[in-house]
Amino acid sequence: MNEFTDWDILRNLLLAARWTVALSIVSFIGGGIVGALLLLLRIGEGRAGQIFTKVYIELFQGTPLLMQLFLAFFGLGLFGIDVPAWLAATVALILWTAAFLVEIWRGCVESIAKGQWEASSSLGMGYLQQMRYVILPQALRIAVPPTVGFSVQVVKGTALTSIIGFVELAKAGTVLTNATFQPFTVYGFVALIYFCLCWPLSKSSQVLERKLNVAHRNH
Amino acid sequence: MNYAFDYGWLLEYWPVLLKGLAITVELTLVGGVFGVALGVACAWARALGPKWLRPIVTTYVEMIRNTPFLIQLFFIFFGLPSLGVRLGELEAANLAMIINLGAYGCEIVRAGIQATPKGQFEAGASLGMSRIQTFWYVVLIPALQRIWPALSSQIVIVMLGSAAVSQIAAEDLTFAANFIQSRTFRAFEAYFVSTAIYLALAIALRQMLRGLGWSLFPKRSGR
Lengths: 219, 223
Hints:
The complex is a heterodimer.
Chain A: H1 6-43, H2 47-61, H3 65-77, H4 85-110, H5 114-122, H6 127-157, H7 169-180, H8 183-217
Chain B: H1 9-47, H2 53-65, H3 69-79, H4 89-114, H5 118-126, H6 131-161, H7 173-184, H8 187-216
Helix pairs in contact in B: 1-2, 1-4, 1-6, 1-7, 2-4, 3-4, 4-6, 5-6, 6-8, 7-8
Protein backbone atom coordinates (compact mmCIF):
# COMPACT_ATOMS: atom_id res chain seq x y z
CA MET A 1 0.00 0.00 0.00
CA ASN A 2 1.18 3.48 -0.78
CA GLU A 3 2.10 5.77 2.06
CA PHE A 4 0.47 9.17 1.93
CA THR A 5 2.57 12.10 3.01
CA ASP A 6 0.89 15.27 4.27
CA TRP A 7 1.85 16.87 0.98
CA ASP A 8 0.07 14.10 -0.97
CA ILE A 9 -3.07 14.71 1.05
CA LEU A 10 -2.94 18.46 0.61
CA ARG A 11 -2.17 18.20 -3.10
CA ASN A 12 -5.14 15.94 -3.76
CA LEU A 13 -7.43 18.12 -1.68
CA LEU A 14 -6.35 21.22 -3.58
CA LEU A 15 -7.08 19.47 -6.88
CA ALA A 16 -10.58 18.68 -5.62
CA ALA A 17 -11.01 22.23 -4.33
CA ARG A 18 -11.09 23.38 -7.97
CA TRP A 19 -14.52 21.78 -8.22
CA THR A 20 -15.68 23.53 -5.07
CA VAL A 21 -14.59 26.83 -6.59
CA ALA A 22 -16.18 26.07 -9.97
CA LEU A 23 -19.48 24.98 -8.43
CA SER A 24 -19.51 28.03 -6.15
CA ILE A 25 -18.97 30.43 -9.03
CA VAL A 26 -21.57 28.82 -11.28
CA SER A 27 -24.13 28.67 -8.45
CA PHE A 28 -23.49 32.22 -7.39
CA ILE A 29 -23.78 33.66 -10.90
CA GLY A 30 -26.76 31.46 -11.79
CA GLY A 31 -28.41 32.26 -8.47
CA GLY A 32 -27.78 35.93 -9.09
CA ILE A 33 -29.54 35.79 -12.46
CA VAL A 34 -32.53 33.83 -11.14
CA GLY A 35 -32.59 36.07 -8.05
CA ALA A 36 -32.66 39.23 -10.20
CA LEU A 37 -35.59 37.88 -12.22
CA LEU A 38 -37.44 36.96 -9.02
CA LEU A 39 -36.69 40.39 -7.60
CA LEU A 40 -38.49 42.05 -10.52
CA LEU A 41 -41.53 39.90 -9.73
CA ARG A 42 -41.23 40.45 -5.98
CA ILE A 43 -41.17 44.25 -6.08
CA GLY A 44 -43.28 44.56 -9.21
CA GLU A 45 -46.95 45.50 -9.28
CA GLY A 46 -48.33 42.07 -10.19
CA ARG A 47 -50.06 40.32 -7.27
CA ALA A 48 -49.48 36.81 -8.68
CA GLY A 49 -45.76 37.47 -9.08
CA GLN A 50 -45.48 38.70 -5.50
CA ILE A 51 -47.24 35.66 -4.11
CA PHE A 52 -45.18 33.31 -6.27
CA THR A 53 -41.88 34.75 -5.05
CA LYS A 54 -43.04 34.76 -1.43
CA VAL A 55 -43.92 31.07 -1.62
CA TYR A 56 -40.67 30.35 -3.48
CA ILE A 57 -38.59 32.07 -0.80
CA GLU A 58 -40.47 30.35 2.03
CA LEU A 59 -39.97 26.93 0.41
CA PHE A 60 -36.26 27.35 -0.20
CA GLN A 61 -35.41 29.14 3.03
CA GLY A 62 -37.65 26.89 5.14
CA THR A 63 -36.22 23.53 4.08
CA PRO A 64 -32.72 22.08 4.39
CA LEU A 65 -30.40 22.54 1.42
CA LEU A 66 -29.55 18.86 1.74
CA MET A 67 -33.21 17.94 1.11
CA GLN A 68 -33.31 20.25 -1.89
CA LEU A 69 -30.25 18.46 -3.25
CA PHE A 70 -31.89 15.06 -2.75
CA LEU A 71 -35.12 16.24 -4.40
CA ALA A 72 -33.22 17.69 -7.36
CA PHE A 73 -31.21 14.49 -7.70
CA PHE A 74 -34.17 12.11 -7.53
CA GLY A 75 -36.79 14.55 -8.85
CA LEU A 76 -35.05 15.27 -12.15
CA GLY A 77 -34.66 11.53 -12.54
CA LEU A 78 -38.44 11.16 -12.60
CA PHE A 79 -38.47 12.78 -16.02
CA GLY A 80 -36.45 9.88 -17.32
CA ILE A 81 -33.22 11.87 -17.42
CA ASP A 82 -30.15 10.16 -16.08
CA VAL A 83 -29.06 12.89 -13.69
CA PRO A 84 -25.36 13.31 -13.01
CA ALA A 85 -24.57 14.59 -9.52
CA TRP A 86 -23.04 17.83 -10.82
CA LEU A 87 -26.26 18.75 -12.61
CA ALA A 88 -28.50 18.15 -9.59
CA ALA A 89 -26.00 20.01 -7.40
CA THR A 90 -25.90 23.01 -9.73
CA VAL A 91 -29.68 23.20 -10.14
CA ALA A 92 -30.37 22.96 -6.40
CA LEU A 93 -27.65 25.43 -5.43
CA ILE A 94 -28.77 27.98 -8.03
CA LEU A 95 -32.39 27.84 -6.84
CA TRP A 96 -31.32 27.97 -3.17
CA THR A 97 -28.93 30.89 -3.74
CA ALA A 98 -31.60 32.80 -5.64
CA ALA A 99 -34.04 32.51 -2.73
CA PHE A 100 -31.59 34.21 -0.36
CA LEU A 101 -30.27 36.82 -2.80
CA VAL A 102 -33.76 38.00 -3.72
CA GLU A 103 -34.54 38.72 -0.05
CA ILE A 104 -31.22 40.52 0.47
CA TRP A 105 -31.77 42.63 -2.62
CA ARG A 106 -35.40 43.36 -1.83
CA GLY A 107 -34.26 44.92 1.43
CA CYS A 108 -31.80 47.08 -0.50
CA VAL A 109 -34.39 48.24 -3.04
CA GLU A 110 -36.92 48.98 -0.32
CA SER A 111 -34.38 51.06 1.58
CA ILE A 112 -34.45 53.56 -1.31
CA ALA A 113 -36.72 56.40 -0.24
CA LYS A 114 -40.22 56.35 -1.66
CA GLY A 115 -39.84 59.90 -2.94
CA GLN A 116 -37.33 58.64 -5.49
CA TRP A 117 -39.96 56.44 -7.08
CA GLU A 118 -42.46 59.29 -7.08
CA ALA A 119 -39.98 61.80 -8.47
CA SER A 120 -38.94 59.52 -11.30
CA SER A 121 -42.51 58.62 -12.16
CA SER A 122 -43.39 62.31 -12.20
CA LEU A 123 -40.66 62.66 -14.84
CA GLY A 124 -42.66 60.22 -16.93
CA MET A 125 -40.33 57.24 -16.49
CA GLY A 126 -41.71 53.74 -16.88
CA TYR A 127 -41.03 50.93 -14.39
CA LEU A 128 -37.96 49.63 -16.22
CA GLN A 129 -36.55 53.12 -16.70
CA GLN A 130 -37.06 53.90 -13.01
CA MET A 131 -35.22 50.72 -12.15
CA ARG A 132 -32.43 51.28 -14.62
CA TYR A 133 -31.70 54.94 -13.98
CA VAL A 134 -32.88 55.71 -10.46
CA ILE A 135 -33.37 52.76 -8.14
CA LEU A 136 -30.77 50.17 -9.12
CA PRO A 137 -27.74 52.48 -9.25
CA GLN A 138 -28.40 53.38 -5.61
CA ALA A 139 -29.59 49.97 -4.45
CA LEU A 140 -26.59 48.17 -5.99
CA ARG A 141 -24.20 50.18 -3.85
CA ILE A 142 -25.95 49.10 -0.67
CA ALA A 143 -26.32 45.54 -1.94
CA VAL A 144 -22.63 44.79 -2.51
CA PRO A 145 -21.49 44.00 1.09
CA PRO A 146 -24.33 41.62 2.03
CA THR A 147 -24.12 39.94 -1.39
CA VAL A 148 -20.39 39.31 -1.00
CA GLY A 149 -21.13 38.12 2.54
CA PHE A 150 -23.68 35.64 1.26
CA SER A 151 -21.19 34.19 -1.22
CA VAL A 152 -19.55 32.60 1.85
CA GLN A 153 -22.76 30.68 2.49
CA VAL A 154 -22.69 29.45 -1.13
CA VAL A 155 -19.12 28.16 -0.83
CA LYS A 156 -20.03 26.38 2.41
CA GLY A 157 -23.25 25.09 0.86
CA THR A 158 -21.30 23.29 -1.86
CA ALA A 159 -19.91 20.96 0.84
CA LEU A 160 -23.34 19.30 1.05
CA THR A 161 -23.19 18.29 -2.62
CA SER A 162 -20.64 15.65 -1.58
CA ILE A 163 -23.57 13.75 -0.05
CA ILE A 164 -25.26 13.24 -3.44
CA GLY A 165 -21.92 12.12 -4.82
CA PHE A 166 -20.43 15.22 -6.40
CA VAL A 167 -16.67 14.98 -5.97
CA GLU A 168 -15.42 18.25 -4.54
CA LEU A 169 -13.41 19.21 -1.50
CA ALA A 170 -15.59 17.59 1.18
CA LYS A 171 -15.98 14.38 -0.82
CA ALA A 172 -12.25 14.25 -1.49
CA GLY A 173 -11.76 14.57 2.26
CA THR A 174 -13.95 11.53 2.88
CA VAL A 175 -12.21 9.51 0.17
CA LEU A 176 -8.76 10.43 1.48
CA THR A 177 -9.77 9.60 5.03
CA ASN A 178 -10.80 6.15 3.90
CA ALA A 179 -7.49 5.72 2.11
CA THR A 180 -5.15 7.12 4.76
CA PHE A 181 -6.98 6.52 8.07
CA GLN A 182 -5.89 9.99 9.17
CA PRO A 183 -9.20 11.81 9.65
CA PHE A 184 -7.70 14.43 11.95
CA THR A 185 -5.12 15.56 9.40
CA VAL A 186 -7.38 15.25 6.38
CA TYR A 187 -10.38 17.10 7.81
CA GLY A 188 -8.02 19.63 9.35
CA PHE A 189 -6.66 20.40 5.89
CA VAL A 190 -10.16 20.40 4.39
CA ALA A 191 -11.31 22.93 6.98
CA LEU A 192 -8.20 25.02 6.33
CA ILE A 193 -8.85 25.14 2.58
CA TYR A 194 -12.49 26.12 3.11
CA PHE A 195 -11.29 28.80 5.50
CA CYS A 196 -8.85 30.14 2.91
CA LEU A 197 -11.68 30.32 0.38
CA CYS A 198 -14.27 31.89 2.69
CA TRP A 199 -12.31 34.19 4.97
CA PRO A 200 -11.23 36.68 2.26
CA LEU A 201 -14.87 36.91 1.18
CA SER A 202 -16.07 37.50 4.76
CA LYS A 203 -13.38 40.08 5.36
CA SER A 204 -13.98 41.98 2.13
CA SER A 205 -17.68 42.07 2.91
CA GLN A 206 -16.87 43.72 6.26
CA VAL A 207 -14.43 46.17 4.66
CA LEU A 208 -16.92 47.11 1.95
CA GLU A 209 -19.59 47.69 4.56
CA ARG A 210 -17.33 50.02 6.52
CA LYS A 211 -16.42 51.95 3.37
CA LEU A 212 -20.04 52.28 2.43
CA ASN A 213 -20.91 53.60 5.87
CA VAL A 214 -18.30 56.31 5.47
CA ALA A 215 -19.93 57.33 2.22
CA HIS A 216 -23.26 57.48 4.00
CA ARG A 217 -21.98 59.64 6.81
CA ASN A 218 -20.81 62.23 4.31
CA HIS A 219 -24.25 62.71 2.83
CA MET B 1 -43.09 11.79 -17.34
CA ASN B 2 -44.67 8.44 -16.75
CA TYR B 3 -43.85 7.82 -13.13
CA ALA B 4 -46.53 6.69 -10.70
CA PHE B 5 -46.17 8.36 -7.33
CA ASP B 6 -46.72 5.98 -4.48
CA TYR B 7 -47.17 7.07 -0.90
CA GLY B 8 -48.43 3.68 0.31
CA TRP B 9 -45.25 3.18 2.37
CA LEU B 10 -46.31 6.02 4.65
CA LEU B 11 -48.73 3.65 6.39
CA GLU B 12 -45.92 1.35 7.38
CA TYR B 13 -43.08 3.80 7.91
CA TRP B 14 -44.61 6.80 9.65
CA PRO B 15 -43.22 5.73 13.06
CA VAL B 16 -39.72 5.88 11.54
CA LEU B 17 -40.33 9.44 10.36
CA LEU B 18 -41.77 10.37 13.74
CA LYS B 19 -38.75 9.02 15.56
CA GLY B 20 -36.43 10.92 13.22
CA LEU B 21 -38.44 14.07 13.79
CA ALA B 22 -38.13 13.60 17.56
CA ILE B 23 -34.33 13.39 17.27
CA THR B 24 -34.20 16.50 15.07
CA VAL B 25 -36.34 18.40 17.60
CA GLU B 26 -34.18 17.19 20.47
CA LEU B 27 -30.97 18.21 18.69
CA THR B 28 -32.44 21.62 17.92
CA LEU B 29 -33.58 22.12 21.52
CA VAL B 30 -30.22 21.21 23.06
CA GLY B 31 -28.26 23.00 20.34
CA GLY B 32 -30.48 26.07 20.62
CA VAL B 33 -30.31 26.47 24.40
CA PHE B 34 -26.60 25.76 24.85
CA GLY B 35 -25.65 27.44 21.57
CA VAL B 36 -27.31 30.69 22.59
CA ALA B 37 -25.69 30.46 26.04
CA LEU B 38 -22.27 29.95 24.42
CA GLY B 39 -22.98 32.83 22.04
CA VAL B 40 -23.83 35.16 24.93
CA ALA B 41 -20.71 34.13 26.84
CA CYS B 42 -18.52 34.71 23.77
CA ALA B 43 -20.18 38.05 23.03
CA TRP B 44 -19.45 39.14 26.61
CA ALA B 45 -15.85 37.99 26.24
CA ARG B 46 -15.37 39.85 22.97
CA ALA B 47 -17.07 43.05 23.99
CA LEU B 48 -16.23 43.38 27.69
CA GLY B 49 -14.09 40.42 28.69
CA PRO B 50 -10.39 40.34 29.60
CA LYS B 51 -7.95 41.34 26.87
CA TRP B 52 -6.24 37.94 26.58
CA LEU B 53 -9.55 36.18 25.96
CA ARG B 54 -10.62 38.33 23.01
CA PRO B 55 -8.28 37.00 20.29
CA ILE B 56 -9.15 33.42 21.30
CA VAL B 57 -12.87 34.03 20.93
CA THR B 58 -12.35 35.94 17.68
CA THR B 59 -10.35 33.04 16.23
CA TYR B 60 -13.06 30.56 17.26
CA VAL B 61 -15.82 32.67 15.71
CA GLU B 62 -13.95 33.23 12.44
CA MET B 63 -12.97 29.58 12.13
CA ILE B 64 -16.52 28.34 12.57
CA ARG B 65 -18.16 30.98 10.40
CA ASN B 66 -15.82 30.31 7.49
CA THR B 67 -16.00 26.50 7.32
CA PRO B 68 -18.96 24.27 6.40
CA PHE B 69 -21.01 22.68 9.19
CA LEU B 70 -20.51 19.27 7.55
CA ILE B 71 -16.74 19.53 7.91
CA GLN B 72 -17.03 20.67 11.54
CA LEU B 73 -19.20 17.62 12.14
CA PHE B 74 -16.73 15.25 10.43
CA PHE B 75 -13.83 16.80 12.30
CA ILE B 76 -15.54 16.30 15.65
CA PHE B 77 -16.84 12.81 14.93
CA PHE B 78 -13.99 11.30 12.88
CA GLY B 79 -11.05 13.56 13.73
CA LEU B 80 -11.22 14.00 17.50
CA PRO B 81 -10.96 10.27 18.38
CA SER B 82 -7.29 10.42 17.34
CA LEU B 83 -6.86 12.89 20.21
CA GLY B 84 -8.59 10.40 22.47
CA VAL B 85 -11.94 12.20 22.48
CA ARG B 86 -14.46 9.60 21.39
CA LEU B 87 -18.06 10.81 21.07
CA GLY B 88 -21.25 8.99 20.12
CA GLU B 89 -23.03 10.23 17.01
CA LEU B 90 -25.70 12.13 18.92
CA GLU B 91 -23.16 13.72 21.26
CA ALA B 92 -21.00 14.75 18.29
CA ALA B 93 -24.05 16.16 16.49
CA ASN B 94 -25.09 18.10 19.59
CA LEU B 95 -21.59 19.42 20.15
CA ALA B 96 -21.22 20.50 16.51
CA MET B 97 -24.55 22.34 16.60
CA ILE B 98 -23.72 24.10 19.87
CA ILE B 99 -20.31 25.18 18.61
CA ASN B 100 -21.79 26.33 15.31
CA LEU B 101 -24.66 28.32 16.81
CA GLY B 102 -22.30 29.69 19.47
CA ALA B 103 -20.14 31.38 16.83
CA TYR B 104 -23.01 32.94 14.91
CA GLY B 105 -24.82 33.80 18.14
CA CYS B 106 -21.69 35.58 19.37
CA GLU B 107 -21.65 37.90 16.37
CA ILE B 108 -25.38 38.59 16.61
CA VAL B 109 -25.39 39.26 20.38
CA ARG B 110 -22.25 41.37 20.11
CA ALA B 111 -23.98 43.61 17.58
CA GLY B 112 -26.77 44.09 20.14
CA ILE B 113 -24.33 44.82 22.95
CA GLN B 114 -22.41 47.34 20.86
CA ALA B 115 -25.63 49.19 20.14
CA THR B 116 -25.97 49.92 23.89
CA PRO B 117 -25.15 53.60 24.51
CA LYS B 118 -22.15 54.07 26.75
CA GLY B 119 -24.12 56.27 29.12
CA GLN B 120 -26.15 53.24 30.16
CA PHE B 121 -23.09 51.53 31.67
CA GLU B 122 -22.37 54.69 33.62
CA ALA B 123 -26.00 55.06 34.64
CA GLY B 124 -25.96 51.48 35.91
CA ALA B 125 -22.79 52.11 37.89
CA SER B 126 -24.18 55.34 39.35
CA LEU B 127 -27.17 53.40 40.66
CA GLY B 128 -24.75 51.26 42.64
CA MET B 129 -25.15 48.17 40.46
CA SER B 130 -22.23 45.76 40.30
CA ARG B 131 -20.52 45.10 36.97
CA ILE B 132 -22.35 41.82 36.64
CA GLN B 133 -25.70 43.36 37.50
CA THR B 134 -25.10 46.16 35.01
CA PHE B 135 -24.17 43.68 32.32
CA TRP B 136 -27.19 41.50 32.96
CA TYR B 137 -29.96 44.08 33.39
CA VAL B 138 -28.70 47.11 31.53
CA VAL B 139 -26.72 45.62 28.66
CA LEU B 140 -27.62 42.01 27.96
CA ILE B 141 -31.39 41.92 28.30
CA PRO B 142 -32.08 45.00 26.14
CA ALA B 143 -29.47 43.69 23.66
CA LEU B 144 -31.17 40.29 23.45
CA GLN B 145 -34.50 42.00 22.97
CA ARG B 146 -33.04 44.01 20.11
CA ILE B 147 -31.44 41.07 18.29
CA TRP B 148 -34.05 38.39 19.09
CA PRO B 149 -35.38 38.27 15.49
CA ALA B 150 -31.88 37.74 14.06
CA LEU B 151 -31.09 35.13 16.71
CA SER B 152 -34.37 33.34 15.98
CA SER B 153 -33.63 33.03 12.28
CA GLN B 154 -30.15 31.75 13.08
CA ILE B 155 -31.66 29.04 15.29
CA VAL B 156 -33.96 28.04 12.41
CA ILE B 157 -30.93 27.93 10.07
CA VAL B 158 -29.10 25.65 12.51
CA MET B 159 -32.17 23.40 12.73
CA LEU B 160 -32.26 23.09 8.92
CA GLY B 161 -28.50 22.55 8.84
CA SER B 162 -28.90 19.65 11.26
CA ALA B 163 -30.00 17.56 8.27
CA ALA B 164 -26.27 16.96 7.75
CA VAL B 165 -25.93 14.99 11.01
CA SER B 166 -27.43 12.00 9.19
CA GLN B 167 -23.99 11.69 7.60
CA ILE B 168 -22.44 10.56 10.88
CA ALA B 169 -25.35 8.17 11.36
CA ALA B 170 -27.23 10.27 13.91
CA GLU B 171 -30.76 9.03 13.38
CA ASP B 172 -32.52 12.31 12.64
CA LEU B 173 -35.30 13.04 10.15
CA THR B 174 -32.95 12.93 7.15
CA PHE B 175 -31.55 9.63 8.34
CA ALA B 176 -35.14 8.33 8.51
CA ALA B 177 -35.74 9.50 4.93
CA ASN B 178 -32.55 7.77 3.76
CA PHE B 179 -33.60 4.60 5.58
CA ILE B 180 -37.06 4.63 4.02
CA GLN B 181 -35.76 5.22 0.51
CA SER B 182 -33.30 2.35 0.86
CA ARG B 183 -36.14 0.04 1.95
CA THR B 184 -38.91 1.13 -0.42
CA PHE B 185 -36.94 2.55 -3.38
CA ARG B 186 -39.38 5.45 -3.26
CA ALA B 187 -36.63 8.06 -3.05
CA PHE B 188 -38.52 11.08 -4.35
CA GLU B 189 -41.58 10.47 -2.21
CA ALA B 190 -39.53 9.81 0.94
CA TYR B 191 -37.55 13.04 0.53
CA PHE B 192 -40.67 14.96 -0.47
CA VAL B 193 -42.51 13.98 2.70
CA SER B 194 -39.53 14.69 4.96
CA THR B 195 -38.94 18.04 3.26
CA ALA B 196 -42.56 18.94 3.99
CA ILE B 197 -42.01 17.97 7.65
CA TYR B 198 -38.90 20.17 7.80
CA LEU B 199 -40.89 23.06 6.35
CA ALA B 200 -43.65 22.62 8.94
CA LEU B 201 -41.02 22.38 11.67
CA ALA B 202 -39.30 25.57 10.48
CA ILE B 203 -42.59 27.48 10.45
CA ALA B 204 -43.57 26.15 13.88
CA LEU B 205 -40.12 26.88 15.34
CA ARG B 206 -40.23 30.45 14.03
CA GLN B 207 -43.65 31.00 15.66
CA MET B 208 -42.51 29.44 18.93
CA LEU B 209 -39.43 31.64 19.05
CA ARG B 210 -41.56 34.70 18.37
CA GLY B 211 -43.84 33.71 21.26
CA LEU B 212 -40.83 33.05 23.47
CA GLY B 213 -39.50 36.50 22.59
CA TRP B 214 -42.77 38.09 23.68
CA SER B 215 -42.79 36.29 27.02
CA LEU B 216 -39.07 36.76 27.73
CA PHE B 217 -39.04 40.42 26.81
CA PRO B 218 -42.43 41.91 27.64
CA LYS B 219 -42.75 45.38 26.22
CA ARG B 220 -41.86 47.78 28.98
CA SER B 221 -43.91 50.92 29.35
CA GLY B 222 -42.32 54.04 27.98
CA ARG B 223 -40.47 52.15 25.26
